[in-house]
Amino acid sequence: MYSGMLIVLLPLALGYCIPCRSQSLVHFINVAVERMVYLILFLMGISLAFVDNLSTHLGTIFILCGVFLACITLCNLAGLWLLDLRRGRLSGERGVPVISKWALLLDSAKLCLVILAGLGAGQFLDPEWFQVDTLSEWALMLLLLLIGVQLRNSGMKLRQILLNRWGLAIALTVMVSSWVGGLLGAWLMNMPLTQGLAFASGNGWYSLSGILIGDKLGPVMGSAAFLNDLARELIAIMIIPALMRRHPSCAIGYGGATSMDFTLPVLQRSGGVAIVPVAIVSGFVLSLAGPVLMLGFLSFTSG
């Protein structure tokens, strides 16, 4: 279950060990990171096209997904907004031009279009021979290796990456506010509170939450949990560029566990290299806590 964390952290650590003194090479790496954002999102769209078993009980699934997504989103953004009140805006990186609001929104639209393009391409591919999960995994590892090189050459110390109080504060805020949203969603849907808490503990890790909750509560709840966390990731991709400067905690935290993998390149692209350690810490803590919390709450439900 935790092998995915090693896949994320190992290339990042290896990249951090690589010094790069050539400015032209640094520029090449920066461009490569930007281009790989689109590649990973395209592969993500293809993986969406390969999802099956979602045609049954669609009404119940979408209602559950919609209610919990709305409750958790409102609670997450409210908690993270309060955290941002204490920190203030994110200062721009030196040498990085200020991007207008409309340009950021256009950037979000481009990212979504890439996902839709992947979704369309996936309709013509056979999941038996097109191993999208393997390709995505290798692409992600290469991207994280390059981001590690960026970190090494940004002047940040290893201590700043491993011990980041802001990242821990974001993770704790997301965790607690998600529970509040889960309790509210369970109350609205007349469900056991422990099921709502388990539903809210996926933190965007849709592959894991769908499997764990589906195994304990059935395919309808599992599909709803999958869609809820998947929609969270997609919403995060759309809102990160627009929120990063004024509300950086909201931008980093809303993606939940995905801030250390799939939304990490979008965060890095919108907030700069300095934002990466914060996102890594936040995503790592939420990834570590997610399966433990889900299984704990589900054990009370089944017991």
TrEMBL record:
It holds the Pfam family Lys_export. The keyword Transmembrane applies. It comes from the Bacteria. The chain crosses the membrane at residues 6-29, 36-55, 61-83, 104-125, 137-154, 166-189, 274-298. One of its GO terms (cellular component) is plasma membrane. Keywords: Membrane, Transmembrane, Transmembrane helix. The keyword Transmembrane applies. GO terms for molecular function: L-lysine efflux transmembrane transporter activity. This is Uncharacterized membrane protein YbjE (DUF340 family). It comes from Oceanimonas baumannii.
